[in-house]
Specification:
The complex is a heterotetramer of chains A (242), B (178), C (479) and D (713). Chain B contains 5 helices and 4 strands, in the order E-H-E-H-H-H-E-H-E. The radius of gyration of chain B is 25 Å and the shape is rod-shaped. Chain C has a single domain, classed as Up-down Bundle (Formate dehydrogenase/DMSO reductase fold).
């Protein structure tokens, strides 16, 4: 239940777009960590793939000076989340301990209002009961709920890892254990373009980047959602040639 | 309750003037207003018939309902979040603008439901005045039901008949509801 | 408030007066008993065609609405066409449509009653029935569109063991409360003026029907106290239900306007939706009146071209008001210059589904403006039937433009999506339409569709007054 | 941790954990076979509700990335990168992530069977019968035996090599489609030509400030995507977050690497070597001090014309290369998959010698570690033997030649000439179903083994161990072969697979390298640590700078001009690799980085070419080469040369279970059977003609075409 721990944290993420190669390892890592079901070709084609995270690929320039622009897009864990107040059943609430946006599956009745109201389109919906044929269901992560038909789901910042880390830190009396936790996408990212950490922690490596990087920006800042994800993209200190 | 026999003077639908006249005749003969009641197929206001204002508590009941709805709205918006505060979208736990919507709806709901209840309760509450009914009322006729002391009988009947009334004596009280 | 009762009985039957009588129901009085008989006859006459319609519609309701809904509940809402990012589709469109239709009853019956518009009298009940049945159809959609309909009661505020309480900050909870309030109050509002007519029906029927009417008539005799109480209650309702009606469609519009969705987040949505709702509601009243007039026995007496004429004028005004709001919304959104909004507005007019947008404008603006200024067209029930049908098609297109077409083109072009309604959701939409018609058909044979006492009251209040050389209709205030 | 560790200490170590990844354990120092036990008698490290982590090595490509598999109560949950492993350093790619979907794939072959080829009757047999079948085959004429192995695992290749030697049979043939696509054999041959050592060189990209990649899709599918992506990160950004490095990619289709590069140069297919040579010449001139003989004979204008790259661009790039502190040129991918591939590779490698600081080095390992792999030439010879009836029994493991090989090679017809085909496949792929016996091996996560890493900065022997008990009635192929050999009474005296692997570890144990990750006095301790850490490697990098020895390369033949209506056709591996993982639903569902497509094949085509053909994205076209034809949907791709079309490899399975079969098209049907100078398939020399079919089959894209490309795209 919503007890406030002594030291609430604010988990955040920094995604360096200069480093992102668009390889999609984070997408798969997220799926395998969070028991995200595959939906098949037809459903993906119709925009029903259950991607908690996806890499947006736009193009810039004209041939031959053409190139992709990759933006990993996931739930921004907004400080003022548009999805939260519109939920009639408190299925989308803010967590005090982690300062993230929770989705409570068993409270969700499937109005899908939150998904409409998410400017990042970070939410996906279980349109059907997706069944994983045995024995493939053996790999399901026991720490993560398997969602049933008719509920909304989205990136959780791997909240099960955060909770595990907090419990470990509490039981072993070593708060630093909690600082080592990372999300599945950040863990997999081959270029470390995705960095995860505690923004309340003075020593957190991402805190400076999050708050003060000259390259930093947040997506749709103008909407006042106060995302917990800062993106970095070359700006004033854009070194190198050209 | 009235135990005296009930009489009914029935006028045609366009004989409103005559009906009003009949009431004043009855009154002049010493039939008190509470022993007279007018039944009609269209609403005829007391002023038209020269009758004392009838009263109804429907408005008051409605008001009580509105207050109850208002309080219920406050209770369901305020109490649960006090017990179990949840943060959504960094809104206050008890935001006044959104509460106003709920308060408005439930106040209106309370008002309107209790108005119906008021109508219902007042309708099934036993009432004074002569009871009795004639289905021809629904044809637009105007009926004057009255009971009167035995000493004034004959005279009044003649005068009423002279006005064009169709008289029925010793009307049997019919149970119309439930 | 003088009692001027010698209304038409003694009047000379010259040409001018007969014309007036033919024109105006209020100036063409018939004895109450005759009117009662006409209404009762209309109510009790059923033809094989009627039963065929009832059977057919019942079948459609059973298969298209409940059958498909059951199938959808069993397999998942994925059988509809919704997708990311268009999470609301035909269901919500139809929901808004029915809630809009339901504004007709309140508008005709409460607003026109408050403003003492006399032409309302014969069709207030027909309009109120639309409100109730429209709401009944519309109120199903918040349930139908749920991903997990079996947990709908999570939205109901009552103490429970789940420690779960609805979020009073959510527009959907407001919706739930507002629709509940509106459904209950409009049903009551339908019922209260019906009591005298139920008593009339009670006196003219036997058997089961009699017992039902007797129960519903609450022992109505027509005493002064009863009339007084009833009028007081009706007055309270007439005044109280108007803000409720406004709040309901405002709240429905808030479902969209409170969001950050580009193209939805607009302060004008409240009045825009209300005007749209009244436009579609009044149009639907005309449609229904045409059907009643041409199918129910004796209704040609009660429903006359004058009513189509009056409603036609209203429609023209509301169509213009709607266009005004539409232009307002468009201009300000465009002027605001937010890229996403501008893009959506452009796409509405140029995108793959632009035909919906043009359909909306043609049906809501072009058709009414080109036709309704003409008295002869307004007085032609058949023409009005088609015009109002078109207006409702246009209003459906408006909601379709606002909901799925706006959702599909939000701020991130990478995630745009085109929504294709599936056969199942269309079937459910058709199912509720059939349910509305079925309920109306059944109700038309179950309750007196004409408030006879109100008509008679009006006829008593109307008279011809000689002014100079002409006789002009005059209304006496009886209340 | 370098000292001897007792079993008790070992378990303590298991509990204490290592780095951030949690606990790494072997299955216990003495265990050889993983035994099924009830949960009531779970081993002490397998506590209910607590995860156990096992280090092993991914077998989905030959890079040999160390992974850690999280298991809970005997179930493999998720593969993660091994933070200590010098290849992966805690990172992981999509294919390894979905390894558990391979392990738990419902379409696996559950036990040994005899079957009629091409479907039909299937007869379950038991392992005794299976071993007997293999034993009888081995007892026959050794000269008529043939072994066809895949790129992984290495220990099986070593064992089979030893076995073939003992039996007197021809050495096993190894083929890996992924290595074919990256031109591994060509690279090794070119390295030998330039540096005198047949090895996979190590390119120091991290410390370079200019990198020219000629076809090497290093971020997605090259020697080791993870290792080079890590280098790319260091190359791209310094510690202060400043953008550094300048990456130029020369490739006709913009790959993931091209997308992340600073300049993408769409060169004509087959002209990469010419471009490299031209740049070499211009750079040498810019730098002064004479033009190396390799570049002396290059005509810059001719190269510019053949490649479509203007001379000014070449000059600018050459100056950049010449003035860089350290400049690297990477040969790979379709640059090498041409008839002139070897010469191109030599030119590109030689370009490195113009760098101020030498970026190329070689890992000093035994020769066998760098043995050429995946060469088409060897396969060609095998096919010839098969066709001429010289093969009586063909053993196939880890490769699916009916799918992966160019159909023009005639493997299918040759296979029909082989009387007995024994497949060790875990999945019912095309070749397995065309075999007489399927004796299923364990999948990667159920197996012991090792893999030599070729693309690290130090010698690495990466360990494989089972993370779960084998799910089905499968048996390690090594054990089957050893048992059969013993039954045949000939050959090897290893008791089992583990004994063989340990014998191969013995030199490492004996060498007692002071820089080794761990040392031990006896094998059980060494073995335990080997499994626990996920392999053996040196603690610090060990590279020898490679000195260019060769004086000059031979002239590079320019590509033949296209005939009218013809287009270059380039197949490339993406997330699906060689197609063996196409049966994992999440690898299918993972979007392609550049195209965002899932679940199917597509043909990348330039907008102008598409317009000329009258097709749009999602329209189906018929692609026809001299050797075959296929149909696939078009994706109009802005970053490809107008004279080139490209298509990912890996789809088009006719078998391989519910998620792979009948999906997309296999570009292998289009390939010519020609090889380049190093014996690698000249797959990029494929030329095709396109024709619209008028049909439309929408691709499952994540993107909105309207949104990204505008209305009407």
């Amino acid at each position: 239940m919503a007890q406030v721990t002594e030291q609430p944290r604010k988990w955040g993420m920094v995604i360096d777009l200069d480093l992102c190669t668009g390889c999609n390892a984070c997408v798969t890592a997220c799926a395998m960590e969070n028991n995200i079901h595959y939906t098949g070709e037809d459903e993906v084609a119709y925009g029903r793939g259950l991607y908690w995270m996806r890499i947006q690929r736009y193009w810039h320039g004209e041939y031959p000076n053409v190139g992709p622009e990759f933006t990993p897009m996931l739930c921004q864990q907004c400080g003022e989340a548009p999805c939260e107040p519109v939920c009639p059943t408190y299925a989308s609430v803010h967590s005090n301990e982690e300062q993230i946006n929770l989705q409570v599956y068993n409270r969700c009745i499937g109005t899908r209002y939150c998904a409409n109201n998410c400017p990042y389109h970070a939410r996906v919906f279980n349109f059907f009961d997706y069944e994983i044929p045995a024995p493939m269901n053996a790999y399901l992560n026991p720490d993560v709920t398997v969602r049933s038909r008719g509920v909304m789901e989205k990136c959780t910042f791997c909240v099960h890892r955060l909770v595990h880390a907090r419990i470990d830190a509490d039981t072993q009396g070593d708060p630093s254990l909690e600082n080592e936790v990372t999300t599945a996408c950040a863990q997999a990212c081959p270029t470390n373009a995705i960095m995860f950490g505690d923004l309340t922690d003075e020593n957190s490596p991402i805190r400076t980047l999050f708050e003060r990087s000259e390259r930093g920006f947040q997506i749709m800042e103008e909407l006042g959602t106060f995302p917990s994800i800062t993106y970095l993209k070359g700006g004033g200190v854009y070194g190198g040639r050209d | 309750m009235i135990t005296e026999p009930i009489h009914l003077a029935l006028f045609e639908e366009d004989q409103i003037n005559e009906a009003a006249e009949a009431i004043s005749i009855l009154r002049s003969q010493g039939v008190p207003d509470r022993n007279i009641s007018v039944i009609s197929g269209v609403p005829l206001s007391e002023h038209i018939l020269g009758r004392p204002m009838s009263w109804s508590r429907v408005g008051l009941i409605g008001l009580v309902g509105a207050v109850a709805g208002f309080l219920a709205a406050l209770a369901i918006t305020y109490l649960p979040v006090l017990i179990y505060p949840l943060n959504v979208g960094r809104m206050p736990v008890f935001p006044i603008p959104t509460t106003l919507v709920v308060v408005f709806e439930l106040t209106m709901l309370g008002l309107l439901i209790s108005t119906l209840l008021g109508v219902f309760v007042e309708t099934i509450t036993p009432s004074y005045g002569p009871h009795g009914y004639d289905p021809r009322i629904a044809h637009g006729k105007i009926g004057i039901l009255f009971t009167c002391p035995p000493e004034v009988d004959c005279e009044s009947y003649d005068q009423l008949v002279a006005l064009g009334a169709e008289l029925t004596h010793n009307l049997q009280e019919r149970k119309l509801w439930p | 408030m003088a009692a001027e009762t010698s209304y038409l009985t003694g009047a000379r039957a010259d040409l001018e007066q007969s014309e007036l009588a033919e024109e105006h129901l209020m100036l063409d009085p018939r004895p109450r008993e005759e009117m009662n008989q006409m209404v009762m006859e209309a109510m009790t006459t059923t033809t094989p065609v009627y039963w065929a319609w009832v059977g057919g519609l019942a079948l459609i309701v059973a298969v298209c609405l409940f059958g498909v809904w059951g199938y959808m509940t069993a397999t998942g809402i994925g059988i509809t066409g919704i997708r990311r990012p268009v999470f609301w589709g035909v269901f919500i469109v139809t929901f808004v449509f029915w809630i809009g239709i339901s504004h007709a009853g309140t508008f005709v019956s409460a607003i026109l009653r408050v403003f003492k518009a006399e032409f309302r009298r014969p069709f207030t009940r027909a309009a109120e029935l639309m409100t109730t049945f429209g709401l009944a159809g519309g109120a199903m959609y918040p349930l139908i569109h749920l991903g997990r309909v079996w947990t709908f009661y999570y939205m109901v505020p009552y103490p429970n063991a789940r420690w779960l309480w609805p979020n009073m900050r959510s527009p959907l909870v407001w919706d739930f409360l507002a629709i509940t309030t509106y459904l209950l109050s409009s049903t009551i509002y339908l019922y209260l003026p019906l009591i005298p007519d139920l008593a009339m029906a009670r006196d003219r029927t036997t058997g089961l029907r009699h017992r039902i009417y007797r129960l519903l008539a609450l022992g109505w005799r027509g005493t002064e106290a009863e009339w007084h109480r009833l009028r007081k209650a009706i007055n309270i309702f007439a005044f109280a239900i108007i803000p409720v009606m406004f709040s309901v469609h405002t709240i429905v519009s808030w479902d969209f306007a409170v969001g950050v969705v580009a193209g939805w987040h607009s302060t004008i949505f409240g009045p825009y939706f209300i005007i749209g709702a009244i436009l579609s509601g009044v149009a639907a009243v005309v449609t229904i009146l045409f059907v009643l007039r041409s199918t129910m026995r004796n209704f040609k007496y009660f429903i006359r071209p004058e009513h189509f004429d009056a409603l036609g004028k209203l429609l023209l005004v509301f169509s213009m008001a709607w266009a005004y709001f539409f232009f307002n919304e468009y201009l300000l959104s465009w002027y605001g210059g937010e890229e996403a909004v501008q893009r959506i507005l452009t796409l509405h007019a140029t995108g793959p589904s632009a035909w919906v947008w043009y359909l909306m404008l043609i049906c809501n603006v072009a058709i009414p403006w080109l036709t309704l200024w003409n008295r002869r067209i307004r007085r032609n029930p058949l023409a009005m039937f088609f015009i109002t049908l078109a207006i409702n098609v246009g209003m459906y297109a408006e909601r379709y433009t606002i909901i799925p077409l706006t959702l599909g083109h939000q701020r991130m072009p990478f995630d745009w999506g085109i929504y294709n309604p599936s056969i199942f959701e269309i079937s459910i939409a058709i199912g509720t339409m059939a349910m509305f018609c079925l309920l109306y058909l059944l109700a038309s044979r179950a309750i007196p569709l004409i408030p006879v006492w109100e008509v008679q009251e009006g006829q008593m209040a109307h008279s011809l007054k000689k002014v100079g050389k002409a006789h002009v209709p005059s209304v006496t205030e009886l209340e | 941790m370098k000292s001897k560790i007792s079993r008790r200490d070992f378990l303590k170590l298991s509990g204490a954990g290592l780095a951030t990844a949690g606990v790494l354990t072997g299955c216990g120092p003495t265990s050889r076979y993983v035994v099924r036990q009830p949960y009531s008698s779970m081993p002490e490290f397998g506590q209910t509700g607590v995860s156990t982590y096992y280090a092993t090595t991914c077998r989905d490509c030959t890079a040999g990335c160390g992974i850690i598999v999280r298991t809970v109560e005997g179930r493999a949950i998720k593969a993660e990168g091994n933070p200590a492993h010098p290849v992966s350093r805690g990172k992981i790619c999509q294919r390894a992530l979905t390894a558990v979907q391979g392990l738990y794939n419902p379409d696996r072959i559950t036990g040994p069977r005899r079957q009629a080829r091409g479907g039909g009757s299937v007869e379950e047999i038991d392992w005794d019968q299976a071993v007997e079948v293999v034993g009888q085959a081995l007892q026959g004429n050794a000269g008529s035996l043939a072994f066809l192995l895949g790129g992984t695992p290495d220990h099986l290749f070593d064992l089979v090599t030893e076995l073939a030697e003992a039996l007197g049979a021809p050495p096993p043939v190894r083929y890996s489609t992924l290595q074919m696509f990256e031109g591994r054999s060509t690279l090794i041959a070119a390295t030998e030509a330039v540096y005198g050592t047949p090895a996979v060189p190590h390119f120091d990209m991290a410390n370079s400030d200019v990198v020219f990649s000629f076809g090497a899709n290093l971020l997605e599918e090259w020697l080791s995507p993870l290792a080079y992506t890590r280098q790319f990160r260091q190359f791209r950004q310094d510690a202060a977050g400043r953008r550094t490095g300048y990456l130029v990619t020369f490739e006709p289709r913009q790959s993931v690497t091209g997308g992340s590069s600073d300049l993408w140069v769409p060169v004509a297919p087959g002209s990469e070597g010419l471009v490299a040579a031209a740049i070499g010449r211009l750079a040498a001139e810019a730098r002064g001090g004479g033009v190396p003989p390799a570049f002396a004979g290059v005509d810059v204008n001719a190269a510019a014309e053949a490649s479509g790259v203007p001379v000014e661009t070449l000059t600018r790039l050459a100056e950049m290369f010449a003035t860089a502190r350290q400049a690297t040129a990477l040969p790979g991918g379709n640059a090498l998959g041409h008839a002139n591939g070897l010469e191109s590779a030599v030119a590109i490698l030689t370009l490195n010698s113009l760098s101020a600081a030498n970026p190329v080095s070689i890992i000093p390992v035994e020769e066998e570690a760098s043995a050429p792999q995946g060469s088409l030439q060897a396969v060609q010879e095998l096919v010839d033997r098969m066709r001429s009836g010289q093969v009586s029994t063909l053993f196939i493991h880890g490769v699916n030649p009916l799918f992966e090989l160019p159909s023009s090679l005639g493997f299918a017809e040759a296979l029909a000439q082989v009387p007995q085909v024994i497949s060790f496949a875990s999945f019912p792929d095309e070749t397995a179903l065309a075999s007489d016996y399927i004796l299923p091996d364990h999948t990667g996560l159920e197996s012991f083994g090792y893999q030599r890493v070729q693309a690290a900065d130090r010698p690495v022997l990466s360990a494989m161990q089972p993370v779960v008990v084998p799910l089905y009635n499968t048996r390690a192929t090594a054990d089957v072969l050893l048992a059969a050999t013993q039954q045949a009474g000939a050959g090897l005296d290893y008791t089992d697979e583990v004994a063989f692997i340990q014998s191969r570890l013995r030199p490492l144990l004996d060498a007692n390298d002071p820089d080794g990750l761990f040392r031990a006095d006896e094998m059980p301790t060494f073995w335990a640590q080997f499994l626990q850490y996920g392999g053996w490697w040196t603690q610090s990098p060990r590279l020898e700078p490679a000195e260019a020895s060769a004086s000059g390369g031979s002239a590079i033949r320019p590509p033949e001009p296209l005939q009218s209506g013809q287009l270059h056709f380039i197949a490339y591996p993406n997330k699906l690799g060689d197609g063996s993982v196409a049966n994992r639903p999440w690898i299918q569902e993972t979007p392609d980085p550049m195209v965002t497509a899932t679940w199917n094949s597509y043909l990348l085509i330039h907008p102008d070419t598409a317009a000329g053909l009258g097709v749009r994205t999602n329209d189906v076209v018929l692609v026809r080469s001299e050797h075959g034809e296929l149909e696939t949907s078009v994706y109009v791709y802005p970053a490809i040369r107008p004279d080139t079309v490209a298509m990912p490899f890996g789809q088009g399975h006719t078998e391989l279970g519910r998620w792979a079969a009948g999906r997309g098209a296999n570009p292998a049907v289009l390939f010519p059977p020609q090889a380049n100078g190093a014996g690698d398939l000249a797959f990029a020399d494929t030329r095709v003609t396109l024709s619209a079919t008028g049909r439309r089959r929408p691709l499952a894209l994540i993107e909105s075409l309207d949104g990204v490309y505008g209305e009407g795209h």
